Amino acid sequence: MQESIGTLVVAGVGLIGGSFALGLKRAGRVGHVIGVGRSPENLRRALELGVVDEVAQDIAAVAGRADLVLLATPVGQMGALMQALSTTLAPHAIVTDAGSTKGDVVALMRAHLAPHLARCVPAHPIAGSDLSGATAAQYGLYENRKVVLTPLAETDSDACNTVGALWQACGARIERLAPLEHDAIFAAVSHLPHLLAFAYVDMIARKPNAARCFDFAATGFRDFTRIAGSHPEMWRDIALANREALLDELATYRATLEQLEAAVSTGDSARLTETFDTARAARVAWNQRFMRQG
Ligand SMILES: NC(=O)C1=CN([C@@H]2O[C@H](COP(=O)(O)OP(=O)(O)OC[C@H]3O[C@@H](n4cnc5c(N)ncnc54)[C@H](O)[C@@H]3O)[C@@H](O)[C@H]2O)C=CC1
Ligand SMILES: O=C(O)C(=O)Cc1ccc(O)cc1
Questions:
Q1: Which of 64, 71, 96, 218 is the most exposed place for a label (fewest CB within 10 A)?
Q2: Can you give the residue range of the structural domain that contains 251?
Q3: 34 and 162 share a domain?
Q4: How far is the CA of 186 from the centre of ligand 2 (A)?
Q5: Do the interacting molecules here have an ipTM over 0.90?
Q6: Are residues 98 and 242 in the same domain?
Q7: Atom of ligand 2 at shortest distance to CA of 230?
Q8: Which of 126, 262, 248, 264 lies closest to 195 in space, CA to CA?
Q9: Together in a domain, 112 and 201
Q10: Which band of pLDDT confidence, cut at 50, 70 and 90, is reported for residue 33?
């Protein structure tokens, strides 16, 4: 296992990839960082801010120099990137990612990096925000946060432990899940709420009196909708990549809404009270635990 790495190639120098680079730099765990991106302006900012030391627009041109490649683009971009880097990768190089979905990333690794699977470590940092781009990259984003690894049967323990050690150097705690369980859990606690927030704000924005509604919206609206300010491409890709698990959660949510609709319509106050009581207790308990341990 390596405690530090020589050259890191980050494909997608945004909030997540940029914060990983900054975390490793601050911990003295990386020698040189090459940022790969499709937006020259974002790459220029990343260089200027010291998030990366060198930039490139074509991953194939720099992948051969990597000791570790982090894919931190929207998940819809990852297949093409894997294909592009597959021919030039050094045999020892580790390929990892930060995508919010794992079943699709594992399948893409199998499709594009078959001879290299021992060095593939799918991963998902459970930290972030509604901000994006290199200017959003920050030190300490992963401090006391979980990172979930979903290694393949073929992944060697050296690669897995190296990726784990690098995330730990950024302050994170490592967890492991099977990709299927990962995608089911995150459909429930991350992907569904983002879809709901986008849908709800879209609904309000289309009302004839939308401007008046927004005028009077306050903290409850702000708290429920913050994540509707997240990156649309990133969330489109997540919704499509995890569609089966997300559709299951949507069906359950729709049924729950229908029950509440019936309770409102029939004036079933016992039902409303029971639902609100249960939800409140669960939210209070979750928040206390999250504040203690992330
Ligand atoms: N935003 C969040 O809170 C979290 C995001 N993630 C995952 O991390 C990944 C990155 O998300 P963020 O950093 O938030 O997004 P971001 O939008 O801040 O950064 C992504 C960067 O990738 C670049 N990019 C897009 N296509 C590319 C391509 N083909 N080649 C090279 N660069 C490309 C974009 O120009 C952008 O600079 C996504 O897969 C997302 O699902 C995971 C955990 C949290
Ligand atoms: O904006 C927020 O608070 C988030 O929920 C951040 C987030 C977004 C995507 C992930 O896969 C993990 C964390």
A1: 218
A2: 181-293
A3: yes
A4: 10
A5: yes
A6: no
A7: 1
A8: 248
A9: no
A10: very high
